[in-house]
Amino acid sequence: MSFEREVLVSLLKITREGAADFYDLCRETRIPSQIVRDILDKNSNLVTYSLPLEKVMITYEQRMKIALRAINLGADIERVCTFLTWLEFENMAILAFKANDYETKKHFRFRWFNRRWEIDILGLKNPFIICADCKHWHHKWSGSASIKAANMQMERTKMLAEAFKALDHRIPVSAWKYAYFIPTILSLLPANRKFYNNVPIVSVLQLRDFLYQVPAYLSKIAHYQFSL
Description:
Elements: H1 3-14, E1 20-21, H2 22-29, H3 33-42, E2 48-50, E3 55-57, H4 60-72, H5 77-81, H6 86-99, E4 103-112, E5 115-125, E6 128-134, H7 144-163, E7 178-187, E8 195-196, E9 199-203, H8 207-217, E10 224-227
Parallel strand pairs: 6-7, 7-9
Antiparallel strand pairs: 1-3, 2-3, 4-5, 5-6, 7-10, 8-9
Helix pairs in contact: 1-2, 1-4
């Protein structure tokens, strides 16, 4: 058994509602308290441990990093993901957008061609509109599943671009001269490939770097350009 792996997975489990008691963590793992302390010290960049209060605290971002660390140590992906919520995943993405000065809209719904469409997260920063589809993480997230997701997100993004002028009252870009609509897939784990049909597949922990690099790599990624 990897003590570190078990401690990290148990951390995800007992901190789903916020800070947790150190000794609850020890009981959950059934690992001696000194070993648990040593593991927390080793992962001090991922965990805030208050010795006087015997409390363990971790942020959204730290929980995502702990999940990846546990998986890299051999933890079962499905097991890890049962302790992560969809809201955490979306909030982590929102933080990355805001860190790069993007405005965001969650669950953006619209009608076009007699159909209802939804974009999980819109990221807005002149002249870019990132249309992100948040995919739940699991071991089958590769191959045909990635290709299908990329193609569907391209279609959603194209529909939004075509419908955009009818929706401009809902998206604050009236001062822009033009816009690039960029379909993007977000996941917890990196996919086998970074692009499918030029649609970027981005780990949520790499989203900040991706957003920073969008202007330089625009010609290499799928997008739809419209004058406003």
